[in-house]
From TrEMBL:
Species classification: Bacteria, Bacillati, Bacillota, Bacilli, Bacillales
Protein name stated in the entry: Glutamate-1-semialdehyde 2,1-aminomutase
EC number annotated for this UniProt entry: 5.4.3.8
Pathway in which the depicted protein is active: Porphyrin-containing compound metabolism; protoporphyrin-IX biosynthesis; 5-aminolevulinate from L-glutamyl-tRNA(Glu): step 2/2
MF terms in GO: glutamate-1-semialdehyde 2,1-aminomutase activity; pyridoxal phosphate binding; transaminase activity
One Pfam family, short name: Aminotran_3
UniProt organism field: Alicyclobacillus acidocaldarius subsp. acidocaldarius (strain ATCC 27009 / DSM 446 / BCRC 14685 / JCM 5260 / KCTC 1825 / NBRC 15652 / NCIMB 11725 / NRRL B-14509 / 104-IA) (Bacillus acidocaldarius)
C-alpha cells in the first residue's frame, strides 16, 4: 500500500514538476495509483519515505547491477568527489573506463563517453548517417532508443505505456526518415531493404528487446539482420543501453556472437550515475570530432564521478563473471518466471515470461511473445492488479508490463524465495 507521505509528496511534486515526475514512467500511469517515493536503498532493497521496504526489481530501470548503495561504489564516488567533481580537461579515469569497455565488448575498438543513453543513440545515428551518406534509419516497432526525435516513432517503454501515438513536436521531415519493422521479423527487414536499401544508413536494434517487456531474439534473427545490413552497405547499431554488461559481461553481442558496427551503452556502465557511451569500429569512430568532422561534445561527458562509479562496477563484474555470477542471475530470473507461470496456470490465468542474464519479463498472455503486437496483447489490467498486490507484499516490479524486470548481483536466495512466497499469496487475490 502506498503510504500517506508518498501521497502527500506526489501532490506537492505535481504542483511544480510536470506530472510530478522527471521521467513519465515514474508517474505509474500504466498501473494506476500513486508512486512510492524513495527514501534510500540498501542492496536489493528500496525503502520508501513511509518506511516500507521493497525487494526491488526495478533497480533504477537497469543501472544498479550491484544493487543500492554498494559500499565499493559509494566509496569510489566519495573519494573521487573529494578531489573535484568535473574538470573540463581529460582525466585518466576516462581512459581506464574506455579500456575496460574495449577489452570486454567484442566489436568495440574505440569509445566516446556521453551523459545518457539518449545521447549515445542519437550520436550513433549521426555518425552512421555521416559514414554512409544516407539519411534513413530503421528501428523496430516497440523498441525504445531514448527520446531523440528520430526514435519517437512507434517507440516502446513509457511511450507505449502511456498509449501515446508518435510524439507531437517531432517534425514530419525527421519522422519520415525513421522506417519501422516488427521485431524478430527478418523477412520484413529483407523486404524493407529490397525496397529502400540505398536510403538506409543504419538499423538500430535492441539485441534483446527490453522496452516491450523482455523479448528474446529468435534464433538466427540477429545473424539475419547482420547479413542484410552488410549486404546493403548499411551499418548495424546494437543499442546495448540495457543489455550491456547485463545479459553477460560482453553484452548481447558476445552472448549471441553477432558483431555490430556500432554499439551504444548507458545504465550499467554508470552504476546509477548519469552516463552513456557509444563505440565501435576504429575507422567509423575516427569520423567523430576531433579526429573527424562529425561533431559531438558534452560539458560533463566522461564525468569523473560517473567514471569512478562505472569503473568500480565493471571491475567487480569481471571478477564476479569468472565465478558464474551471470548464470546465477539468470537462474534467479528463470525461477521467478517459472513460479509466475506455474501460479498463473494453477489459477487459470494466461502467462508466459523470459529471463536472460540480469533481465526478465513477466507477461499475462499465453505467448509466445515475439514482438510488439504480441507483447501489447497481454492483459495489462491484470498486470496492474498483480503489480499493486505485489507492492503491498513488499515486492517492487516495474510499474508497467511493457518493461523489463532487473535482477542485481546482490539479490540472493532469500529475496527470490520471499518473492515467490509473495506471489503465492497474491495470485488467489488477483484471480478473483
Ligand atoms: N536505449 C535503450 C535500449 C533504453 O532502454 C533507454 C532507456 O531506457 C535508452 C536507450 C535511453 O537511455 P537514457 O534514458 O539514459 O537516455
Amino acid at each position: 500500500m502506498v503510504g500517506e507521505r508518498s501521497k502527500q509528496a506526489f501532490e506537492r511534486a505535481q504542483r511544480v514538476l510536470v506530472g510530478g515526475v522527471n521521467s513519465p514512467v515514474r508517474a505509474f500511469r500504466a498501473v494506476g495509483g500513486t508512486p512510492y517515493f524513495a527514501d534510500h536503498g540498501e542492496g536489493p532493497y528500496l525503502y520508501d519515505i513511509d518506511g516500507h521496504r521493497y525487494i526491488d526489481y526495478l533497480m533504477s530501470w537497469g543501472p544498479l547491477i550491484w544493487g543500492h548503495a554498494h559500499p565499493n561504489i559509494v566509496r569510489a564516488i566519495a573519494e573521487t568527489a573529494a578531489r573535484g567533481t568535473s574538470f573540463g580537461v581529460p582525466t585518466e579515469l576516462e581512459t581506464e573506463m574506455a579500456e575496460e569497455i574495449v577489452e570486454l565488448v567484442p566489436s568495440v575498438e574505440k569509445v566516446r563517453m556521453v551523459s545518457s543513453g539518449t545521447e549515445a543513440t542519437m550520436s550513433a545515428i549521426r555518425l552512421a548517417r555521416a559514414a554512409t551518406g544516407r539519411t534513413a534509419i530503421v528501428k523496430c516497432i516497440g523498441c525504445y532508443h531514448g527520446h531523440a526525435d528520430s526514435f519517437l516513432v512507434k517507440a516502446g517503454s513509457g511511450v507505449a505505456a502511456l498509449g501515446l501515438p508518435d510524439s507531437p513536436g517531432v517534425p514530419a521531415s525527421v519522422a519520415e526518415r525513421t522506417l519501422t519493422v516488427p521485431y524478430n521479423d527478418a523477412d520484413a527487414m529483407e523486404k524493407l531493404f529490397a525496397d529502400r536499401g540505398d536510403e538506409i544508413a543504419a538499423v538500430i536494434l535492441e539485441p534483446v528487446a527490453g522496452n516491450m517487456g523482455c523479448v528474446l531474439p529468435r534464433p538466427g534473427y540477429l545473424e539475419a539482420v547482420r547479413e542484410i545490413t552488410r549486404r546493403h552497405g548499411a551499418l548495424l547499431i546494437f543499442d546495448e543501453v540495457i543489455t550491456g554488461f547485463r545479459v553477460g559481461l560482453g553484452g548481447a553481442q558476445a552472448r549471441f556472437g553477432v558483431l555490430p558496427d556500432l554499439t551504444t551503452f548507458g545504465k550499467v556502465i554508470g552504476a546509477g550515475l548519469p552516463v552513456g557511451a557509444y563505440g565501435g569500429r576504429r575507422d567509423l569512430m575516427a569520423l567523430v570530432a576531433p579526429e573527424g568532422p562529425v561533431y559531438q561534445a558534452g560539458t560533463l561527458s566522461g564525468n569523473p564521478l560517473a567514471m569512478a562509479a562505472g569503473l568500480t562496477s565493471l571491475r567487480m563484474l569481471k571478477r564476479a563473471a569468472a565465478e558464474g555470477a551471470y548464470e546465477r542471475l539468470e537462474s534467479y530470473g528463470r525461477r521467478l518466471v517459472e513460479a509466475f507461470c506455474r501460479l498463473a496456470s494453477n489459477y487459470g490465468l494466461p502467462a508466459t515470461g523470459h529471463a536472460i542474464g540480469g533481465m526478465f519479463g513477466l507477461f499475462f498472455h499465453d505467448g509466445p511473445i515475439v514482438d510488439f503486437e504480441t507483447a501489447k496483447a497481454c492483459d495489462q489490467a491484470l498486470y496492474a492488479d498483480f503489480f499493486r498486490e505485489m507492492l503491498a507484499e513488499g515486492v517492487a516490479f516495474a510499474p508497467a508490463q511493457l518493461e523489463s524486470g532487473f535482477m542485481s548481483m546482490v539479490h540472493g536466495e532469500a529475496e527470490i524465495e520471499k518473492t515467490i512466497e509473495a506471489m503465492e499469496r497474491v495470485f488467489p487475490r488477483i484471480a478473483n
